[in-house]
Amino acid sequence: MLTLNQTAALGLLAKQETITPGEVAHRLRMQPQALTRTFAALEDEGWMRRLPDPSDGRQSLLTITAAGREVLADEMRPRDEWVAAAMERELTTAERDLLVVAARLLERLAEVDAAVARTEAAVDRASTEAAAERVRT
User: Any idea what DSSP says for residue 48?
Assistant: First the structure.
């Protein structure tokens, strides 16, 4: 069974081709240091890989493995089945349709947040590089 942090991190990795540890932390509203053990455990299990960032040698990129996708699907299956059964049993067709629309809107908002996180990460990298350049000169 995955921890909540592992499930959340794998869920993000499943949606992204690659993502930095800092971006994962930002999207989960956590400090990067709080996810250090989570990333190590995911990597030890073979559910995630770290790749060197081709544009920044100091940075790594995270990616989910096939085994990670499988363990995430196994973790989510009972929850998905429970929610689907509860929706079928408790909600009208119109209410279920409304939830489909609401889910799409939430996904759009999440994508906006992801774009902001990528922009903030790029600004942070540029700022760090500029500071390093000032120190060198």
Answer: E
The domain containing residue 71 runs over which residues?
4-136
Overall domain count for the chain: 1
Q: What are the residues facing 51 on neighbouring strands?
A: 61
The reported pTM is 0.73
Mean pLDDT, the chain cut into blocks of 10 residues (137 residues total):
94 92 91 93 97 88 97 96 96 96 91 71 65 69
Of 70, 60, 74, the C-alpha closest to 21 is 60
Task: Categorise residue 59: left if φ over 0, alpha if ψ from -120 to 50, beta otherwise.
Answer: beta
Q: What is the CATH number of the domain that holds 43?
A: 1.10.10.10
